[in-house]
Specification:
The complex is a heterotetramer. Chain A is built from ten helices and ten strands. Chain A is of the alpha+beta class. Chain A has two domains: 55 residues, 3-methyladenine DNA Glycosylase II, Chain A, domain 3, CATH 1.10.15.40; 170 residues, Alpha-Beta Plaits (2-Layer Sandwich), CATH 3.30.70. The radius of gyration of chain A is 28 Å and the shape is elongated. By secondary structure, chain C is mainly alpha-helical. Chain C contains eight helices and two strands, in the order αααααααββα. In chain C, strands 1-2 form a two-stranded antiparallel sheet. Chain C is globular. The chains are: A alpha+beta, B alpha/beta, C mainly alpha, D mainly alpha. Chains B and D meet through strand 16, strand 17, helix 10, helix 12 and helix 13 of B and strand 1 and helix 1 of D. Strand 2 of chain A pairs parallel with strand 1 of chain D.
Chain lengths: 271, 449, 220, 347
């Protein structure tokens, strides 16, 4: 009886041993070398694979950092914190970088902007823009059909009941997907610390804007006087120059159309 | 001349109610000049024209307002004499903003003195004829607006043996081409002969649908005693689409992505032929066209000879205005026309009609899932599978749609016309085609850079 | 405290059948009667606990490259033990479970716990995990099989529960799929409702992610 | 969370006066609801025939199936928060077809179970009308057949099949069932299939599911559907044609154990299946060629099951099996796109 056990034990042991040797040989000669630094660096990145760095995913960015010396400040979701970590890891000098968040430069929802016709078709901004340029009377306005919201990896974009896209800065990682998705090109990445924005992209003349939208920029230039260099006129449209400092909130109160708003890092406060 | 029925019938197609009766017996009326004419610089396929006049300039009828912006482009001429009051950005019929020259007519409608009738066309070289056509700003007047001179200049080595004149006008409601054939058969015929001389085409075919007996009669009278053929087509939509027409007449299939010249054929619309006659024989550039203003919401539907740049609102007002608020305003026919958000847009070289539909005739779809009835597959003249394509595009699988040849779609609307689930199939296709074109451009520039 | 947490997670939040959607093969195949379910569940629980202990004990000395073969060997050993024991002492049950006892070797739950838990935690917690997961598995099988046995055979644990027309389908293979599918839907529904009430976002198990399926509007 | 609930926008009730959409702006005017209504009308002759032959039972089952199908559809849609209601009438069609596939003596509660299975499991669980891969009514029937085999094979009162075979033996069998059991015991064919029987079978005087007995009534409905372009001729023609060819071959090979092809056409659910079940739009191919192959496949499978299978009748199974092939047939029979593939063109 005990001998019945010994035979299989020897056979199984032998099989196990030979398999083990095979595995050992395989591990020795067929192994794929992975740079351990790439793995370690990948672990530092946020792992949302948003593509904001221009590379297809976090591990590719890590590879680019180590192999090709990519810039350390490309990871937008990670922001300055990740940038510093990368810089420390790679032993390079950290660069200045501010987190960017997306902003919809249109405030015209169903209550304030008029629609020229009833749009009947696919609920997608790109498709709607192909039908008579979209149903907003203003040719530059947000269509509110949520192409940006659908592409947002963090669901930071809300389509309000009055059909306007609003981005929640606290959820936004600044990946810029929505900027690409918007057929009207009214989403812009702005520095997170900035609070005062002109919510209009209409290049129309003031009388046309007034007809189409009650809160569009009419090009009255009152804000430019109040804000100094930070708000400039581009034709009939006031545009915030984000390279110039702007703390003075006078522009908000000066705007007769209430186009200029204050949006803090956490939530949006109408003027 | 011999008259025969079309020998080939392409698969697919639909039979929408033609509704041409409102205007098909109405003689073309002259549309009086509007207060302001809005001449868009985007009236054709290809590069937009570049404005060459300034605000305040006095212009004569036929004077060049915008010169061609490239080879595939066409110049734009002043539709009447008057003053340029502004050069602005205005939405086109497609709703996208484009440069536009606003002209205030002086009411005298004087022709530009530089415009003279040319020498006898029969003695002219093909090249000289094409040059005159380029200068006259003639584009395909059937709807797409492809610059005519490009078509008439086949690359060396390509011969065009068959010239087909498109008088099918398969879109419901529209009667502009039909009236033109009835009223100006002789000038169309002269234009056709000019085109034939340019191309040296061996075979000449006039194709008309069998629901226009008066046009068939008028054209056959004009063509009497020549070697041209008159092909009577069975009424079916989209019989007048270029590729389908070539197939119906010759049995040749234009290869995917190719031009008709690939099978040695060329299609010209009857309106284009009449414009060529005007340009070569009369020496007039293209400044007006026939527009059918119709639909249940127009008080008295009419065929109008309107100047390019006439606002749609003026056309409707001349027809007695609207009976009530329309449900939909369409530039062009109901199958392929562009829905308008307002009547602000102006007549262009390709505006064949303005249709005002009542609310009850407008399909207000709230689309359902596809029930796989297969009607779109049977209806598609390009033999695509619109049901599968629609679902793919809805799932944002543009690559898959490309693999199923979505780029061959001619957007004729037969699929969506038949769809019992009211799916916006054409819109899906358009979306995918726009997206794929964008991707291809990107790839092409990436390959270059 | 940690022990307790690891113990109960297998019952609901990480229930192997309804939440992780693992071990589908036995859950579909042997749930024609409650007796089978109990037998299968206990056998799997035994293997789970033993293999968790063994793997937690040896995971530090096993090179990570060959860990999977090692786990398989360990699991196979315990499965053989269970197979032989059941054959000896519960012969009838063994016969009705048939091939599914040896198939515990390739059961995703056991390998999954070995890889996901036991190889990263100590022996003590791994015991808790094994017990919790095993009991969760057993209870899930009992629920599925009870429904199928009552509807398809008018019995429960072999005792008649009433005289009515039975639906033969329920004890045939399609019945397993139907029952399990409906129960999964129900669990998803309950979870979504609970998440909504507590104000959290509902994150469905990856295999049952509602967000990309337009069939119903529960994911929203 | 932010995703619009609808794939396409409905019409806003208020403000802007006119509409704009992508072309075309004309429509044939046909809708899913109209198609379903046509099918319902086409089923009316068969319902009348069922009423004549089976009386109260036929009406009871039809009513129960329709009511429970519609109720199940409404309830599931509400529960799943799907917006579109029961207005498309597809649940009514499912209910009617399911009832037509049930034997007259079936208890009402079983019909309710079948209806719920058909609507909830076979249709709504897959996403509702348009997404169901299998014919819901047939799934309902097959589930009932597997679950309650006795109740589903207890037939009506007809005693006309053959005076020679003894009354008791035939009161509870369909012609197909009778043939199968008789041949299974090694006996010769149970009755003579000649002029009179053919006429009776054609008119509907035989045992079977309530909607399938009267070939005449079904043909009237089928012709109506063909006339209204609700079905294409490929499926019924190729389905019945294949069965006829198959049966002819069998009959010529061994006339002592096989009836002539008319027997196979006039018995069982073939005509009902060929005109109403195998032509269901959702679960059948979209191309004409695909429909042709679908019909042939159904015909072959039906005959294989009838001749060699465990069940006497194979129409339901044949159609369900072919439903599974629908995506494949759609793929294989894609039409050649205009301007493609005539000559090999360089890219």
């Amino acid at each position: 009886m005990p001998f019945d056990i010994i035979d299989p034990t020897i056979i199984m042991g032998g099989v196990g041993l030979s398999c083990g040797i095979l595995l050992g040989v395989a591990a020795r000669f067929l192994t794929v070398t992975v740079n351990p630094r790439i793995e370690a660096l990948t672990a530092l990145l946020p792992g949302v694979n948003c593509g904001a760095c221009g590379l297809p995913g976090c591990s590719e960015y890590a590879r680019a950092l180590i192999m090709h010396g990519a810039k350390v400040n490309l990871c937008k979701p990670g922001g300055p914190k990740t940038m510093r970590q990368i810089a420390v890891f790679l032993g390079v000098e950290p660069v200045t970088m501010e987190r960017q968040v997306a902003l919809v430069l249109c405030g015209g929802d169903d209550k304030t902007a008029i629609r020229k016709f009833c749009y009947n078709g696919i609920a997608d901004c790109a498709a709607a823009a192909l039908v008579g340029g979209g149903d907003k009377a203003c040719g530059y306005g947000c269509l509110g059909l949520g192409s940006c919201a659908r592409i947002c990896p963090t669901e930071a974009i809300e389509i309000t009941h009055a059909r306007l896209a609003v981005i929640h800065p606290e959820l936004c990682i600044g990946c810029g997907q929505c900027v690409k998705a918007c057929p009207k090109k009214i989403i812009q990445l702005v520095p997170e610390s900035r609070t005062i924005h002109v919510l209009c992209r209409s290049k129309d003349r003031g009388n046309v804007v007034k007809k189409n939208c009650s809160i569009g920029c009419i090009g009255c230039t009152l804000c430019t006087k109040a804000a100094g260099n930070a708000i400039k006129m581009e034709g009939a449209l006031a545009v915030v120059d984000y390279t110039q400092p702007l703390e003075n909130e006078e522009a908000i109160t000066k705007c007769p159309q209430h186009t200029i708003i204050k949006r803090s890092g956490r939530k949006e406060v109408p003027a | 001349m011999k008259t025969r029925r079309a020998m080939f019938r392409s698969k697919g197609g639909v039979h929408p109610a033609s509704r041409k009766r409102a205007t098909n017996a109405m003689p073309v009326e002259f549309m009086p000049l509007s207060k302001v004419l809005f001449v868009s610089m985007v009236q054709h396929m290809g590069a937009p024209a570049r404005p060459v006049v300034k605000k305040g300039d006095a212009v004569m009828r036929g004077q060049v307002l915008g010169e061609a912006g490239g080879y595939v482009s066409a110049p734009v001429h002043a539709p009447t004499s008057g003053k340029v009051i502004a050069i602005s950005e205005r939405p086109t019929q497609a709703g996208l903003p484009a440069a536009c020259v606003e002209i205030e007519p002086d009411g005298e409608d004087r022709w530009d003195a530089a415009r003279q009738p040319g020498p006898d066309w029969k003695t002219m070289e093909a090249k000289a004829l094409v040059e005159r056509i380029v200068a006259a700003g003639i584009v395909g007047m059937g709807g797409a607006g492809f610059p005519t001179h490009v078509k008439l200049s086949p690359p060396a080595g390509k011969t065009i043996d068959t010239l087909i004149i498109n008088g099918a006008e398969c879109e419901p409601y529209l009667t502009a081409d039909q009236r033109l054939m009835v009223e100006a058969a002789q000038s169309i015929w002269t234009g056709v002969q000019i085109v034939r001389q340019i191309l040296g085409a061996r075979r000449l075919v006039m194709a008309i649908e069998d629901n226009k007996p008066d046009a068939i009669q008028a054209m056959s009278a004009a063509m009497e005693g020549t070697d041209a053929e008159l092909v009577v087509l069975k009424t079916e939509y989209p019989q007048g689409a270029e590729k389908q027409l070539i197939y119906a007449v010759t049995g040749r299939e234009v290869p995917s992505g190719g031009l008709p010249m690939a099978v040695g054929a060329l299609v010209e619309n009857v309106g284009t032929c009449a414009a060529i006659y005007d340009a070569i024989v009369e020496g007039r550039p293209l400044t007006e066209r026939i527009v059918t203003v119709t639909g249940a919401m127009v008080r008295t539907p009419k065929n109008l000879r309107a100047r390019i740049g006439t606002p749609l609102a003026d056309l409707v007002a001349f027809c007695g205005g609207m009976v009530g608020l329309p449900g939909k305003i369409i530039c062009g026919g109901p199958m392929m026309g562009l829905a308008q958000g307002s009547l602000e847009a102006a007549v262009t070289k390709t505006t064949s009609g303005v249709v005002l539909l009542p609310h009850q005739a407008v399909q207000q779809f709230s689309s359902m899932p596809c029930i796989s009835c297969g009607r779109c597959v049977s209806a598609c003249p390009m033999r695509l599978m619109p049901n599968t394509l629609g679902e793919m595009i809805e799932a944002e699988d543009n690559e898959g749609a490309e693999g199923l040849n979505v780029m061959d779609c001619i957007e004729c609307g037969s699929c969506a016309y038949e769809c019992p689930a009211h799916r916006p199939l054409v819109q899906h296709m358009r979306q995918a085609k726009a997206e794929i074109t964008k991707q291809r451009l990107k790839k092409a520039t990436a390959a270059k850079g | 405290m940690r022990f307790y947490k690891e113990l109960i997670k297998g019952l609901w939040t990480e229930n192997p059948i309804f939440r992780l959607v693992l071990g589908m093969c036995p859950a579909l195949a042997i749930t024609t009667s409650v007796m089978n379910a109990i037998g299968m569940g206990l056998a799997a629980t035994f293997v789970l606990i033993c293999s968790n202990i063994a793997i937690a004990a040896v995971h530090n000395i096993v090179p990570s490259k060959v860990r999977i073969p090692c786990y398989i060997v360990i699991i196979a050993t315990f499965v053989t033990v269970v197979d032989l024991l059941m054959n000896a002492y519960l012969h009838e049950l063994h016969k009705s479970l048939g091939i599914f006892i040896p198939l515990i070797v390739v059961n995703c739950i056991i390998l999954g716990r070995a890889e996901a838990f036991a190889s990263k935690n100590g022996v003590w917690l791994s015991i808790a995990d094994g017990i919790g997961m095993g009991i969760g598995f057993t209870l899930s099988l009992i629920v599925v099989s009870a429904i199928r046995e009552i509807l398809g055979n008018a019995t429960l644990l072999g005792y008649a529960v009433g005289h009515y027309q039975v639906a033969l389908l329920m004890v045939l293979p399609p019945g397993g799929f139907l029952t399990l599918g409906c129960l999964l839907a129900l669990m998803n529904h309950i979870q979504a409702g609970m998440a909504r009430r507590s104000g959290h976002a509902y994150v469905p198990p990856p295999t049952l992610d509602c967000r990309h399926c337009a069939i119903c509007k529960w994911g929203e | 969370m932010n995703e619009p609930v609808e794939k396409t926008l409905p019409i806003a009730a208020k403000e802007p006066t006119w509409l704009a959409s992508s072309s075309p702006h004309a429509h044939s005017g046909d809708s899913v609801r109209k198609i379903m209504l046509t099918v319902i009308i086409a089923l009316m002759p068969a319902l009348a025939a069922a009423g004549i032959f089976f009386g109260w039972d036929a009406l009871r089952l039809t009513g129960v199936c329709i009511v429970s199908c519609v109720a199940a559809e409404a309830a599931t849609r509400k529960l799943m928060r799907r917006d579109k209601g029961i207005g498309d009438l597809s649940a009514v069609v499912t209910g009617l077809l399911l009832a037509f596939n049930l034997p007259p003596a079936l208890p009402s509660w079983m019909a309710v179970v079948g209806s719920i299975v058909a609507i909830v499991i076979a249709k709504q669980f897959y996403g509702g009308l348009g997404y169901n891969p299998f014919n819901p009514a047939l799934i309902g029937r097959v589930l009932l057949l597997i679950s309650f085999p006795v109740a589903m094979t207890t037939w009506g009162p007809w005693q006309i099949l053959s005076p020679a075979a003894g009354v008791d033996a035939i009161t509870t069998a369909t012609p197909l069932g009778l043939v199968k059991t008789t041949l299974g015991t090694g006996q010769p064919l149970p009755f003579v299939f000649d002029g009179d029987t053919i006429l009776q079978f054609f008119m509907g005087a035989k045992n079977g599911c309530i909607g399938e007995v009267s070939v005449l009534a079904l043909l009237i409905g089928g012709m109506y559907l063909l006339w209204r372009r609700c079905i294409s001729w490929q499926v019924p023609v190729f389905y019945i044609g294949t069965v006829a060819v198959f049966a002819t071959i069998l009959w010529l090979a061994d006339p002592t154990h096989n009836y002539n092809p008319l027997f196979h056409i006039l018995t069982g659910g073939l005509v009902l299946g060929a005109f109403f079940m195998a032509t269901d739009m959702v679960t059948t191919p979209v191309t004409k060629t695909g429909l042709m192959f679908f019909g042939i496949g159904c015909g072959v499978l039906t005959m294989v099951i009838r001749k060699w299978g465990g069940y006497p009748e194979g129409v339901s199974f044949a159609i369900l099996i072919m439903n599974a092939f629908t995506p494949l047939l759609n793929r294989m029979t894609r039409p050649r796109v205009f301007g493609h593939g005539q000559k090999k063109k360089q890219a």
